[in-house]
Amino acid sequence: MFPHYYYGRRNSISRYPQPVCHFPPPPRQLYYTASVRQFPSVNPATFMSSAKHMQDLMSDARSLLDRMATSKQFSNDLMSAAQQSQTKKAEEMIKATGIKSQPRVTYTPDGLTLVFEAKDDHAQCCSLTLKLRWM
User: Fold this and answer.
1) Is the dihedral of CA 59, 63, 69, 75 positive or negative?
2) Closest CA to 112 of 59, 87, 60
């Protein structure tokens, strides 16, 4: 035929050479035995302590939320102080509700974030974050 044709396979004519691909053989099946991880023995003391601290935090958060939900004057004053960046006034208002743990207060134009943290003897054991929107 013509010189620009390539006879790559038997009984077939192609204009372009057909690449010859050699694939490696499939990998052999490797069987692994599952290793058993050794975990330390369970000691629930720290876990139970965290749960106890969390109960206290939730109690404080509950009483603060009850005050916010039932007192229109308190909510109005707290929102006004927060929007005007009067951090001290907002923290004093929250402390005046009678809660034991003082939350870390941050606010944005959209709402208020309260982070209640319980400090254990050795490290921070737990925290509770409340995000409340007013817009």
Assistant:
1) negative
2) 87
